[in-house]
Design brief:
This protein is of the alpha/beta class and 192 residues long. It contains 7 helices and 7 strands, in the order αβαβββαβααβαβα. The chain has one domain: Rossmann fold, CATH 3.40.50.300. 36% of the residues lie in helices and 26% in strands. Bound molecules: guanosine-5'-diphosphate and magnesium ion.
């Protein structure tokens, strides 16, 4: 290989974009769209894909690799538009997902117990081993809390997920969940 070729190959490698499909799932009104809006801020821009009933947004996230070097990965984040019903969640939404965020509302028990259903659906679509994070949102609503930490930690252990609590309202931990899913997904790809 000539020196010129070698250089070209290097440049190509550095320019290759890493894009991961991240699906955001959970009951209506748990704060899925709000978390995304908070994370993406001004740049937040959605593309609506009516045939699937989702909005998709792309967001770069910079993380550190094992050597401490910055790596930018692009998250292609899928968010269910409107009121998700199980019948609506067909193959295109789940297909090819690289990571998932499972979201419930800490003030609403049904949204927490339904995480099991969301998980079963994901498993049905062959996603039982992709990186995943369980997220209890709305921690700013302290007085209305129904789901205490041990309950969530127990579920998180059962489903083999990481676990975070967030508030889309105050922004608490919002950045962390996207950083974490980017990191976990990159790691799992490098191990493949
Ligand atoms: P989605 O249906 O899961 O996408 O939920 P949305 O993002 O549309 O949020 C549903 C409602 O919950 C809206 O009224 C939001 O303003 C509110 N909400 C979302 N996240 C939070 C949060 O962290 N704290 C509080 N207090 N309200 C929130
Ligand atoms: Mg929404």
């Amino acid at each position: 290989m000539t020196e010129e070729n070698e250089k070209e190959k290097l440049v190509f490698h550095e320019r290759t974009e890493m894009i991961f499909k991240i699906i955001v799932i959970g009951d209506p009104a748990v704060g899925k769209t709000s978390l995304l809006t908070d994370f993406c801020g001004e740049k937040f821009k959605y593309e609506y894909i009516p045939t699937v009933g989702v909005n998709i947004t792309k967001e770069p996230v910079t993380i550190k690799d094992d050597m401490g070097k910055d790596i930018t990965v692009n998250l292609m984040i899928w968010d269910i538009a409107g009121q998700p019903q199980f019948y609506m969640l067909h193959r295109p939404y789940f297909n090819g997902a690289d990571g998932m965020l499972l979201i419930y509302d800490i003030t609403r028990s049904s949204s927490f117990s339904n995480i099991n259903n969301w998980w079963s659906t994901s498993v049905k679509y062959g996603l039982s081993s992709i990186p995943r994070i369980l997220i209890g949102n709305k921690i700013d609503l302290k007085d209305d809390r129904k789901i205490i930490l041990p309950m969530a930690e127990h579920l998180s252990e059962k489903l083999g997920t990481q676990f975070f609590e967030t508030s889309a309202l105050t922004g608490e931990n919002v950045k962390s969940i996207f950083q974490k899913i980017a990191e976990l997904t990159l790691r799992s790809k490098l191990e493949e």
